[in-house]
């Protein structure tokens, strides 16, 4: 078959949403960020709310999310995205406001902003990428790094006696009254992506209910800094991350599952 | 005319509110006024003071190091502020709890037994209004009607029923103030 | 209808914020400025105008809420006192870098560290030289009366939107805590006439997406952005200098002071004139832009300048730069929360005058 025939419209099986820009993603091959960016934008697209959405990008690998997402966005200081989103949502309550944050951003430097935005029940969506490591700065230990996990700042493995335990921030915030919906998902298989997208859709739809924070954690990999191939990294994630951070809904409709 | 006043005593004696009422009263009489409190954790139990300036001109400094009039409600404040009264100025004090009495010869010294009078009238809360009355008798810059307007402005409406009581206390203060040196 | 009220400086700021049509206030309690948040809550500003009031979990969160809310092109403000303003520096730097308009109030207290809750002016450097990381400036307004605490709120918002820059009202514990008469301006509707093309309001099909950030990973582009910022600060220096002169025309010696110190120097000026000394007061109202040219122009006919500040001597450096050391300039000030008295200030001036006279003999 000629190439031209293959790319003819009737053979189209998948199309990038126009809510992603044409800028080439700068994420490492195999990273979950690209997929998560896509499903967040697909949800915004399918809900028809592009003109109603304001996004908050973090500091970390997804610092340039505003270059890839074709929506109005602001880049927050490290960890402050929930406070920035609070500011936007409070003066623009009719808009859909979301943050997109990694584990260092949300669960280390921004813990206070995360907890308090959640506790106030801000009507925002938080998308949380947990890959157990600082990606952008080159593989340092994150609050969510697993026990024994080797990183550039825990080169002999995370010693919980001196470095503390991996922080289950999602379980922590699920307990807060101001939090309405919490789900933990992954994007490493087609089935997982479908589930994750469903969860993100719920998290955006919930903003209309004005019942508080909707929070979706995506347990993801960082093959570059885990120093594994993409396939191996996903295997390692299934074997090590999922037992500690099990997938599934944690709080639905304001009730713990 | 400019009158620079320090009011000083214990926190809880109504020092700041007396100053506020005086400032409001001046304002009711179209004067320029300023009210500058000492502020901070010492306000309850410790010493509290407030500088009030009433003037027919634009007020420059709200911070002063000498005063035309000192209204003194405890020993520490007497010790601190008696030396800071301008020569020819006025010291008005409540003698309750005072053991070291004022001694300056170049100022006019007045005493008002406000603590005692307030408990005699069973109106401990209007203690500071007795003192204010004594001051208004000595320095009648502000008319009583404007003081009553000032009280109304200064108090939240739910406390407006106390205005007649405050009025009585002011009148009583005017009656009982005495000059100690002539 | 204009209204005459007796108010604390802090209350006047809060009332002025409501009347100026501010859309949002995000703050955290700290002495000596907690009355601002308290007043906005007591007055139920939200009911009066729809203004959003939120007590944040920290100054860090508060300034980042300001950052977010300011992205929407609305009139947003915060207030704090010295230690809290230090904590806000991260956000202020981001706001300056991202060129967002907002109003920040610092009711300064004594430092360093937790310091004291008493008045101070020791945050001058932090305010006028940037404060956080990077090359940036804020427009700094220094009110010296409760009236100016009120008037500088709408002025601050106007300047903030005109230049897309954070404006700082640099006050102190004296001006914040004292009560004076204030002539309140009429209620202004919650709206802004300034350019809104850059704001985040949701991307519509008829315009490209708007992005607000202070990040540019390309150094050359970042340098370009810095050039743009510097050009803006130059423009502000040309257009927005504000100051007041009192008895300066025939003065041989002048006080230069702002805020509460200016009020104290005003009294000292009057006391000096009573003694026949040719003393005047020059009061910078904008500390950035600093009235450099104006001070330089006057320096030739002066014998000496006394900079009076509740600090160990910060503004004096800008005065010396402004005068290019053509005239003797010294600093006097009490600090760490101590307020200098009019007579102390007068004495310092008399000593300076004496030292100049001796120098001439």
Short description:
The complex is a heterotrimer of chains A (257), B (182) and C (361). Chain B is α/β, with parallel strands linked by helices.
Task: Give me some keywords for this one.
A: 257 residues, 11 helices, 10 strands, 37% helix, 19% strand, B: 182 residues, alpha/beta, Pyruvate-ferredoxin Oxidoreductase, domain 3, 6 helices, globular
Describe the model.
The complex is a heterotrimer of chains A (257), B (182) and C (361). Chain A has 257 residues and is α/β, with parallel strands linked by helices. Helices cover 37% and strands 19% of the residues of chain A. Chain A has a single domain, classed as 3-Layer(aba) Sandwich (Rossmann fold). The longest helix of chain A is centred in the N-terminal third of the chain and has 16 residues, at 32-47. Chain B is an alpha/beta fold and 182 residues long. Helices cover 36% and strands 25% of the residues of chain B. In chain B, helix 4 packs across helix 6. The longest helix of chain B has 14 residues, at 15-28. The radius of gyration of chain B is 15 Å and the shape is globular. Chain C has two domains: 3-202 and 228-238, Rossmann fold, CATH 3.40.50; 244-360, 3-Layer(aba) Sandwich (Rossmann fold). Chain C has 13 helices and 15 strands. Chain C is globular, with a radius of gyration of 21 Å. With 361 residues, chain C is α/β, with parallel strands linked by helices.
What is the fold's blueprint, element by element?
The complex is a heterotrimer of chains A (257), B (182) and C (361).
Chain A: H1 3-6, H2 32-47, E1 53-57, H3 65-68, E2 72-75, H4 81-91, E3 96-102, H5 103-109, H6 111-119, E4 125-130, E5 133-134, E6 140-141, H7 160-163, H8 169-174, E7 179-186, H9 190-205, E8 213-219, H10 223-226, H11 230-244, E9 248-252, E10 255-256
Parallel strand pairs in A: 1-2, 1-3, 3-4, 4-8, 7-8
Antiparallel strand pairs in A: 5-6, 7-9, 9-10
Helix pairs in contact in A: 2-9, 4-6, 5-6
Chain B: E1 2-10, H1 15-28, E2 32-37, E3 47-55, E4 67-72, H2 75-81, E5 85-93, E6 108-111, H3 114-120, H4 127-138, H5 144-154, H6 163-176, E7 178-179
Parallel strand pairs in B: 1-4, 4-5, 5-6
Antiparallel strand pairs in B: 1-3, 2-3, 6-7
Chain C: E1 3-8, H1 9-19, E2 24-27, H2 34-42, H3 45-49, E3 52-55, H4 59-70, E4 76-80, H5 82-97, E5 102-108, H6 124-128, E6 139-141, H7 146-163, E7 166-172, H8 173-177, E8 179-184, E9 211-212, H9 219-239, E10 243-246, E11 253-256, H10 259-274, E12 279-284, E13 286-288, H11 292-299, E14 304-308, H12 315-323, E15 328-332, H13 342-360
Parallel strand pairs in C: 2-3, 2-4, 4-5, 5-7, 6-7, 11-12, 11-14, 14-15
Antiparallel strand pairs in C: 1-8, 6-13, 10-12
Helix pairs in contact in C: 1-2, 1-7, 4-5, 10-13, 11-12
């Amino acid at each position: 078959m000629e190439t031209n025939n293959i790319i003819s419209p009737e053979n189209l099986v998948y199309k990038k949403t126009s809510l992603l820009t044409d800028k080439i993603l700068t994420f490492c091959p195999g990273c979950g960020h690209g997929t998560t960016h896509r499903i967040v934008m697909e949800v915004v697209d399918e809900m028809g709310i592009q003109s109603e959405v304001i996004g908050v990008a973090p500091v970390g690998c997804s610092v340039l999310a505003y270059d890839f997402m074709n929506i109005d966005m602001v880049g927050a200081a490290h960890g402050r995205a929930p406070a920035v989103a609070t500011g936007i949502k409070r003066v623009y309550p009719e808009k859909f406001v979301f943050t997109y944050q990694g584990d260092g951003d949300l669960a280390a430097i921004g813990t206070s902003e995360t907890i308090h935005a959640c506790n106030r029940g801000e009507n925002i969506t938080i998308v949380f990428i947990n890959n157990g490591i600082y990606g952008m700065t080159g593989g340092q230990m994150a609050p969510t790094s697993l026990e024994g996990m080797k990183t550039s700042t825990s080169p002999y493995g995370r010693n919980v006696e001196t470095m503390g335990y991996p922080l289950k921030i999602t379980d922590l915030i699920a307990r807060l009254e101001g939090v309405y919906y919490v789900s933990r998902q992954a994007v490493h298989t087609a089935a997982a992506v479908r589930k994750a997208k469903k969860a993100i859709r719920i998290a955006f739809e919930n903003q209309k209910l004005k019942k508080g924070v909707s929070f979706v954690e995506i347990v993801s990999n960082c093959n570059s800094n885990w120093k594994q191939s993409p396939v191996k990294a996903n295997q390692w994630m299934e074997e090590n991350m999922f037992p500690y951070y099990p997938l599934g809904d944690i709080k639905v409709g304001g009730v713990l599952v | 005319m400019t009158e620079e006043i320090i009011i000083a005593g214990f926190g809880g004696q109504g020092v700041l509110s007396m100053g506020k009422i005086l400032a409001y009263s001046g304002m009711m009489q179209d004067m320029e006024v300023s009210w500058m409190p000492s502020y901070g954790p010492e306000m309850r139990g410790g010493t509290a003071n407030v500088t009030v300036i009433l003037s027919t001109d634009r007020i420059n400094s709200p911070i002063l190091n000498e005063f035309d009039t000192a209204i003194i409600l405890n020993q520490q404040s007497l010790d601190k502020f008696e030396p800071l009264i301008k020569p020819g100025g006025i010291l008005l004090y409540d003698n309750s709890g005072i053991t070291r009495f004022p001694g300056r010869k170049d100022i006019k010294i007045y005493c008002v037994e406000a603590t005692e009078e307030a408990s005699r009238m069973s109106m401990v809360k209007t203690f500071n209004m007795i003192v204010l009355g004594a001051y208004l008798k000595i320095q009648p810059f502000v008319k009583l009607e404007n003081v009553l307007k000032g009280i109304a402005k200064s108090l939240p409406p739910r406390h407006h029923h106390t205005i007649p009581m405050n009025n009585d206390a002011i009148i009583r203060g005017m009656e009982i103030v005495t000059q100690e040196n002539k | 209808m204009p209204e005459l009220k007796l108010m604390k400086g802090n209350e006047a700021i809060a009332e002025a914020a409501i009347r100026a049509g501010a859309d949002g206030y995000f703050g955290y309690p700290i002495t000596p400025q907690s009355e601002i948040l308290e007043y906005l809550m007591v007055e139920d500003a939200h009911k009066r105008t729809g203004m959003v009031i939120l007590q944040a979990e920290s100054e860090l969160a508060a300034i980042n809420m300001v950052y977010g809310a300011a992205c929407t092109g609305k009139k947003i403000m915060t207030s704090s006192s010295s230690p809290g303003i230090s904590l806000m520096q991260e956000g202020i730097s981001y706001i300056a870098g991202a060129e967002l308009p907002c109003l920040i109030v610092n009711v300064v207290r004594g430092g360093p560290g937790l310091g004291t809750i008493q008045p101070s002016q020791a945050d001058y450097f932090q305010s006028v030289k940037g404060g956080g990381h990077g090359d940036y400036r804020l427009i700094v307004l220094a009110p010296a009366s409760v009236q100016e605490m009120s008037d500088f709120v709408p002025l601050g918002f106007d300047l903030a939107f005109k230049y897309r820059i954070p404006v700082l009202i640099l006050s102190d514990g004296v001006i914040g805590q004292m009560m004076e008469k204030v002539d309140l301006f009429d209620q202004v509707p919650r709206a802004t006439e300034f350019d809104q093309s850059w704001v985040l309001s949701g991307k519509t099909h008829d315009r490209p997406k708007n992005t607000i950030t202070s990040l540019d990973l390309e150094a050359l582009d970042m340098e370009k952005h810095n050039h743009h910022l510097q050009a803006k600060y130059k423009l502000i220096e040309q257009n927005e200098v504000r100051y007041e002169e009192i008895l300066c025309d025939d003065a041989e010696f002048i006080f230069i002071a702002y805020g509460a110190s200016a009020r104290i120097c005003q009294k000292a000026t009057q006391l000096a004139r009573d003694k026949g000394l040719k003393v005047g007061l020059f009061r910078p109202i904008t500390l950035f832009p600093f009235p450099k040219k104006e001070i330089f122009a006057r320096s030739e006919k002066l014998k000496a300048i006394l900079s009076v500040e509740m600090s160990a001597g910060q503004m004096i450096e800008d005065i010396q730069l402004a005068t290019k050391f053509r005239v003797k300039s010294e600093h006097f000030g009490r600090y760490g929360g101590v307020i200098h008295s009019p007579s102390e200030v007068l004495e310092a001036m008399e000593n300076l005058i004496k030292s100049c006279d001796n120098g001439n003999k």
